[in-house]
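Annex B, item 7. Sequence and structure tokens for protein A, then protein B.
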Amino acid sequence: MSYQVLARKWRPKRFTELAGQEHVVRALTNALERGRLHHAYLLTGTRGVGKTTIARILAKSLNCVNGVTATPCGVCAACTEIDSGRFVDLLELDAASNTGIDNMREILDNARYAPTVGRYKVYLIDEVHMLSKQAFNSMLKTLEEPPEHVKFILATTDPQKIPVTVLSRCLQFSLKALPAGVIDARLAEILGAEKIAFDKDALALIARSAQGSMRDALSVLDQAIAYGAGEVRTETVRTMLGAVDIEHTYRIADALIAGDGPALLAEARAMTERVISLSSAIDELASLFHRIAVAQTVPSGVDSLPDAERIAAYASALSPEIVQLSYQICVQGRTDLALAPDEPTGFAMTLLRLLAFAPAAYPGSKQEREP
């Protein structure tokens, strides 16, 4: 049997398996249990957070042989065919490639006919914001008063582009970007089931790189397994992602506090030679200043961090004003990186700007030593 990528193999098949979208699961579960079903749903959210997955589970809930239920059996013909993408009464359409009014008219004409084998005919229209204005207008009447056997599930990453007339006809659910902790726990669960050795720190790196998308995290995990010859190890993942070892960030902070410009440039060169992502390096530095700011204003907020002692030392060494300024310089430097002659130059200039814009900030700086 051919290999199936983790994102497909471990796609949730029940509402109880969904991670991080409890508000949506609760609303849909209650609606299904009480028979209060809307005729059109709009699922919004960034990529890889569960829009299509929720739509398919909802389609199973509506067409399961056990009746309309929040807990589809998963083994009947309808459930298994929906899982495999072969259910004739679940029509999945990509609005990006079916944007015109003719495509929409064909869909709406077919909606009049009763389901072939299921209880409901479910239309899942992905990236619905890509439809033309004429296509949206053509579906208004059907969205408002669809046949009783039809349910529409619209999904989009950009709800602002959907006309208000369409939004008002749909029950809208906004899916959240998943916290890194939720992604981390799910990856550990999957690797445990797959019997693949891993380091917890490696999963934390992957979870952070996914930026709230479970699908992205699973794709990176697939890559890490291949790159690490069947294991997921921290150094391997850091190399693969070009991620920054936190020690680099600490050395930069130490050099700034010492006012040591040569050490800053040496660290920048070392990171460039190790092919570390310099944009990620600035992100890590901004994150460090954020943690320092938290320690200065809400000391208990960093107690649970693994580097709490070091953060406390930095918080004592730097004034709150300088920490705020340094954070802003890092954020601006991240933006300027794309405009620099090259990334190493942009990164080095950000470090030098941190030193130059805070003449009296760092205890060992040249400016402070001068009268």
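Protein B:
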Amino acid sequence: MFHRSRPFGLLSRLLLIASAVFLGIVSAPRSAYSAESINRIIATVGSQSISELDYDDAQEKYSKLSRFLKNEDMRKTLRTRIIDFLIDRAVVDSISEEESIQVNEKRLDSEIDKRMEMMGVSSRKQFEKAIEGSSGMTYDLWYSELPYQIKRTQLMQYKVPNIPPTEKDIRAWYNQNRDKVGFEIQFRQIVVAPANDSISEESRIHKEAADIRKSVQADPSSFSLVAGSARNNDPTLRARKGLVDWVSSFELFKTSRSVAAAASAVQVGGISDVFRDERKRYCIIKVEGKRPTPIDNVRQGIGNLLMREKEEDNFHKWVKDQRSHVPIQIFDDAYKKENKIPEYHETFILD
């Protein structure tokens, strides 16, 4: 995972010393250099260095993001977790640079414009509010993460292997989450529609609907007879004795929110209260059956969900694997001790 320091060429050594001077860490005598000064540089990842200043800046961000980071090893100290956070980000930056993935101001603006269009939002203020609501982050925090998310998405497409879930995975998820896949419902519906908008007609029809409900509530077996009679004002429903055959709760919601809401509240064999639908008709329904949405109807959706869940795990594993390919040097004593990284001593000789 981590590489032993290799001998430096003259140019590399001079650059290291110059960097140290810039950070103000070479004022101590040479004997104190490795013990005090070099530790101001926590690590180097490729050509990128991680300093104590970077660590200080990252503490607040890590604290805010920690609830979104699902692969954190909480057995490790906070310092080690933050340093690992910085190293992983630096690895992503290093590989993105190799792959010519660049995220500049123009790219960020383009990404935001695309997301605004997808969300149907025209003003930046509305967009910021929507982002805060959907992400659970402040907009400033979300925006600070956007460059990393763009790089992550690009690397996921071109570099990270993503194995699709198996049929066994899909069936296991379906069996464990039947309550989440929704349900299909079979019901009968009686519709009573007012002939006009007058108050007297509304009153008459409401009373008629209430009388019908009272009648079928007393004898539920009569519901289909009434639904197939002239008392049902919807000719299509009347021809089927009010039957609406198996339909998913989602499709029913798209067709009529009022009917979907009424159906969801009624148990099998139960009869709803009188309610008005979107066409201002008075309705009563009897639920004949409910069942979980068949797996064939949701297989693709479950597969996509599992792919998204595995994407994060796969990306995390891939980044960890890349640590063996990107040159990494650690100078933080506490991190080295906790992670059992051996101490190597080298003498730098300037030509």
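Comment on protein B: The chain is about 55% helix and 10% strand.
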